[in-house]
Amino acid sequence: MKRTIEIVYFEGCPNATVARERVVEAIRSCGLHEEWTEWDLMDAKTPDWAKQFGSPTVLVDGEDVTGAGPGASAMACRADGAPSTTVIVTALV
């Protein structure tokens, strides 16, 4: 089953790179194809729905892997940082 994986972030967020690394680790451990979409909160082309998430957020099939929902305004780093590889793997399987 092909999963849709997305990372919502903004440049300068110290956890964005960690989130990418953990997504790669999770994808590899599940034996999936390394493919995902990234949404930069600073980019005007980013859809409005993505702008409701903090940076970094990892979505699998449109759902935040941590179980948190979108907020009203998200131009901020998430207090909980990047999700763990284990949490991402759990969302993928």
Short note summarizing the structure:
It is built from 2 helices and 4 strands; from the N terminus they run βαβββα.
Descriptive report:
- The chain is of the alpha+beta class.
- It is built from two helices and four strands; from the N terminus they run βαβββα.
- The chain has a four-stranded mixed β-sheet, with helices on one face.
- α1 links the parallel β1 and β2.
- α1 packs across α2.
- The radius of gyration is 12 Å and the shape is globular.
Distance between the termini: 9 Å
Largest sheet, in brief, is: 4 strands, mixed
Give the helix tally. 2
Helix content: 10-25%
What is the residue-mean pLDDT, rounded to a whole number? 90
Layout: helices, strands, pairs:
Blueprint: E1 5-9, H1 16-29, E2 37-40, E3 57-60, E4 63-64, H2 85-92
Parallel strand pairs: 1-2
Antiparallel strand pairs: 1-3, 3-4
Helix pairs in contact: 1-2
Which tags fit this structure?
4 strands, globular, 2 helices, alpha+beta, four-stranded mixed sheet, 93 residues
